[in-house]
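Dear support,

I submitted the protein below through the web form. The confirmation email said the job was done, but the results page showed an empty box. After a refresh the structure appeared. I'm attaching both so you can tell me whether what I see now is the final result or a partial one.
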Amino acid sequence: MNLRNLTNLDLNKTVWRYMPFSKFISLITYKALWFSKLNILQDEYEGMIPSNVRTAMNQDNQKWKSQFNTPEFHRQIDNWPAENENDGRELIVVNCWFLGDEESKIMWNQYGKFNEAVAIKTTIGQLAHYVLMPDDDNISHIGLVSYVDHDNHKMSFYEANQAHERAFLKDTNRFSHEQELRLCTMSLKTTNCISMEGRQYTREEVESKKMNNFNNPGLYIGVKLKELITEIVVCPNAQDWFTKMVARIVDLNGLNAKVSLSKLDGLQSKK
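What the results page shows now:
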């Protein structure tokens, strides 16, 4: 797996994944993390070419029109950047974590407003080792997001044409508080993936064209839960019964992970 904006010295740093209870049950039941396609994420800039780079690419592409002297080819040339974006936003899937030695109240307020949420605690190194993405540096990446001004960010044309490069860019004005770390790979089914029905794919099911994942909004990728999770923290507003239920679920699944209540004060009230 390719490390991006990270060194080996960063592998012991703590990361968190905040989630509602339903997604926690999904993780435990499927023994897999959900990787979303870029084109369904909240930020409309996900996977997009920065505006100034797109303009420069379009200008540079005009030179090819003299070699393809038909209106249809000219339209295709004008659409190259947009087609690259659309293909990349469909083909790349990501799973998001948040860097920090301590819990984040901002993240709890975003993910835990219904008093039934948890945060999974682990390290960057454990993510790199125990999430079962393809073992190919050209396909699978783990790294910190770069927060940029999407109108003015500078990239080479080569970088801008690579969907996995664009997958690590987010808008600085809205998201820089997150300190996000991402797992990024291609939306291709392998025998380490879990079907939407909760079955591990067989080799026959992922051979050749069958590996394509066009019909789903993302991909479940298997994890080694016992090795991955170091602690499960229950959200600040949780009632005692909920904390005990989470602990019981953890025990029944043999995770041996500590379950604790958040150390932070209560969250913002529900609207």
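Response: this is the final, complete result; the empty box was a page-load delay. The chain has ten helices and 13 strands.
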